[in-house]
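fwd from M.: "can u put these together and see what the complex looks like"

so here's what she sent:
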Amino acid sequence: MRRITPNNTRTTCKQCSIVCRCLGRNLSAADIEENLGISGCARVLHKQEHLFDMHQPFHSLYIIKSGAIKTFSTTHTGEQQVLGFHQPGEILGLDAVNSRYATTAVALTTTGVCALNKDEVTRAMRRSSAFLEQIMEHYRQELFQEKRMLTVLARKDADQRVATFLLSQIRGCDFFNHSQAELTLPMSRSDIGNYLGLAPETISRVLRRFQEAQLIVVQRNRVNKINSAGLYSMAGESVWLDECSCKQRQCAS
Amino acid sequence: MRRITPNNTRTTCKQCSIVCRCLGRNLSAADIEENLGISGCARVLHKQEHLFDMHQPFHSLYIIKSGAIKTFSTTHTGEQQVLGFHQPGEILGLDAVNSRYATTAVALTTTGVCALNKDEVTRAMRRSSAFLEQIMEHYRQELFQEKRMLTVLARKDADQRVATFLLSQIRGCDFFNHSQAELTLPMSRSDIGNYLGLAPETISRVLRRFQEAQLIVVQRNRVNKINSAGLYSMAGESVWLDECSCKQRQCAS
DNA sequence: CGTTTCCTTGACGATTCTCAATTAGGGTGG
DNA sequence: CCACCCTAATTGAGAATCGTCAAGGAAACG
């Protein structure tokens, strides 16, 4: 276990009070931290450092404050299956089964997280039925997203998968008011391919084709001059539309 | 809306008191009906009849008593994506988002269900923290299963997907003590292919190849002489292993 | 500055899809 | 009870997509 906690002092981390990313849309860190008085424990992960490992006892939830996290499962032959890329505002660990983490979470870059004790969250749920309902709705949203991903893998070709993926990444950035014209991909081509059920070479080729089609400009991990509308029609179906409309609603409120 | 309710009298349906299928393994119908005093409303669906439709207001949960149900989502181009096949003991409707059903559920054959009012279940959750925890664990298990399905779609070839699918169907039957040597598939080849991200022709061809390899004997919707061990190794990875071990545990208790 | 890792690009091959024709089953009506 | 019809399943041939293998190059790291 490579695990370093440079900033492990127990403290209510106000930085956590950012509106949760769309994926956890009606469950915000602010709800957890401020309304319910749960204090978090700040922690910084270096690149490739594990936040938690599959099968490990479940003890904490984590809110991502900065950076990026990849979650994956490991088959008994040792292969990895990337299951998601997570951005600031997202909550990790809620899918722990039988009190053990169902996935491994690893930092793709230097990442700040806020740890929340499992039992404190449980107590808070008992106290506040509104908070409980938010947690439940979060689960339902997660299930909904996984079903969307199933649809992507079952129905879409390589171009559509990559376009869908890029749009999902843009959305996350956009939510924090980054320019939609630029995007940094903290994960490798292998990771993207693994996530989308494609070979890494295919990711390269699709990105090059997108560039030739004037949809993006790619420079290694940087994606510039993004033609969102073009990607959107390339993705074939408004896979993330509901999320985006949801985001707008949340930003307005 | 084709909706017929031959047996719509409000009654506590004791038939619902069957141990929930593995997929909802620690959330049993017995827990809901007997321990918490929630009464269900029996209903019989004819083949192809809809139990609920995507986007419809969420009002009830349903426990499948007999028959088989297919759930799917519809894209805005009108295409269907099959998301699951559900057997007696399973609970449907818990994934409703924003108080609307996230999928459409349709009977694949004559099917008996037990309807549970959403608000009654919510009240029961508030009363019993044990029940609440069961519901939460159910969500986590569902998320875990969806992630497994993602792995199947992202990593496995046609043979492995079909073998995995057949094993998942056997498991459900086995749980109700049917012979493992025979299996009835209530869904069409198109449905299977849609679910697995394959063309219906591919399903036919794979089943024929399995038959030539002495793994099964196929006669339209009937599958006989199933070599579970062979299918298991064909599936490539112990995708449903955890579930099966869970099943054994539950049966023992 | 060298080494390592990741990305890119090409050529080839395999799996799977599409299209089309044929066959089998189930249901209906005479 | 049989004949017919209609849907679903099967099977084949050809094409397209994507994966695999291998080589080269660029960025990052120590």
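replying to her w this: Chain B has a mean pLDDT of 81.
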